[in-house]
Amino acid sequence: MLGFVTFPAGLVMLRSGLGSWEKDGPAGGGDMSSFSKAPQQWATFARVWYLLDGKMQPPGKLAALASVKLQGLHKPIYHQLSDCGDHVVIMNTRHIAFSGNKWEQKVYSSHTGYPGGFKQVTAAQLHQKDPVAIVKLAIYGMLPKNLHRRTLMQRLHLFPDEDIPEDIRKNLVEELPQPRKVPRRLDEYTQEEIEAFPRVWSPPEDYRL
Amino acid sequence: MVALNVLVYPFGRLLRGLLAGPIATSWARLPARGFREVVEIQEGKTTTIEGRLTGTPKESPNPPNPSGQCPICRWNLKHKYGYEDVLLLSQFLRPCGGMLPRRITGLCQEEHRKIEECVKMAHRAGLFPNHRPQLPEGFVPKSKPQLNRYLTRWSPRSVKPIYNKGHRWNKVRMAVGSPLLKDNVSYSRKPLMLYH
């Protein structure tokens, strides 16, 4: 009854390991509906670690994906109180890309509580000071505004570059697809592709570039 | 767009002098030399710097719509390109990154403006790493913190931060992309958002 076809296929090879009494995971066939009782229970309720690469991605879209996974909204067994969220690891937060002129226009405000303590910092300045802060604030704003938010933020792991500690790397199950399709630069096209593209106008004979 | 009195070519001063009188049309061009590449050969103690005539690249044969007036109409690309179509945009660029004039490329006014805007956005997105202006000798540019961006409408240096975002009925929005590309074909249901 509880065959979750939407779950990542990696759940079949559970890193958390199966207990001693269910040496058969999927009994014959490899389909999740043929799991015996305990492995099916593990597969349903185990907390999964997802990886997301933030290179050249807009932080808002990364945050939307991450907040859905953190709350557990992608699971059919979701309930607000059942603590069914997963872990999300976001790497390369130093290389996020804002659309438009948001690096200069977007302002992050805070107040220390003391008089004269109102600080307004542009996204570029904040990113310079802390490369992780923009994604963190974006996700914090997208989570539900209740006491669970702090727990969910503890399950979020942000790294400015590619190096992730070994113990987190061992937990990762699936890499989520990037939300934005990154366009190719001119030097990333091969010479054959450049030649195959038709030339759209011809300059006059006597024109000097 | 290069205005007629800001020509950079060596015959520009001559042209300005000629056109100081009654200007016939801006389409009259003095005979100039063709495309050439500069080749430097070192043979022992003699260095030969030579400009070799390269063939001017020709338009590919059989455009889908030969009756079109500008290259975009001829190739049926009217509302179909964006800032990421670098192979198309690079055909209208100079090696240093500037746009070619409209009277040379043959584009119509609105398409020229659209291509110019797409080229600006592509430069700001870093899609033309080799079309950089030539720096004077021995000049090392200061390393600036490199921020990735895309669909940037305004130049980064010209924009001020939005300190007061405004109330719910009167928000100050941030501009993304360009209104010139409003009529582009969109294959998804999502409307194009120009102000975030």
Automatic annotation (TrEMBL), chain A:
Gene Ontology CC: mitochondrial large ribosomal subunit
One example GO MF annotation: mRNA binding
Signal sequence annotation: 1-19
Keywords: Mitochondrion, Ribonucleoprotein, Ribosomal protein, Signal
A Pfam family that the UniProt record links to this protein: Ribosomal_L13
Predominant place of localization: mitochondrion
Compartments it resides in: Mitochondrion
Any GO BP annotation: translation
Similarity comment: family membership: Belongs to the universal ribosomal protein uL13 family.
HAMAP family listed in its UniProt record: Ribosomal_uL13
Protein known as: Large ribosomal subunit protein uL13m
UniProtKB/TrEMBL annotation, chain B:
Subcellular location field: Mitochondrion
Any single biological process term in GO: mitochondrial translation
Molecular-function GO term, any one: structural constituent of ribosome
Main localization category: mitochondrion
Region (Disordered) residue spans: 46-67
Pfam families: Ribosomal_S18
PANTHER family: 30S RIBOSOMAL PROTEIN S18 (PTHR13479), LARGE RIBOSOMAL SUBUNIT PROTEIN ML66 (PTHR13479:SF66)
Family listed: Belongs to the bacterial ribosomal protein bS18 family. Mitochondrion-specific ribosomal protein mL66 subfamily.
Name of protein: Large ribosomal subunit protein mL66
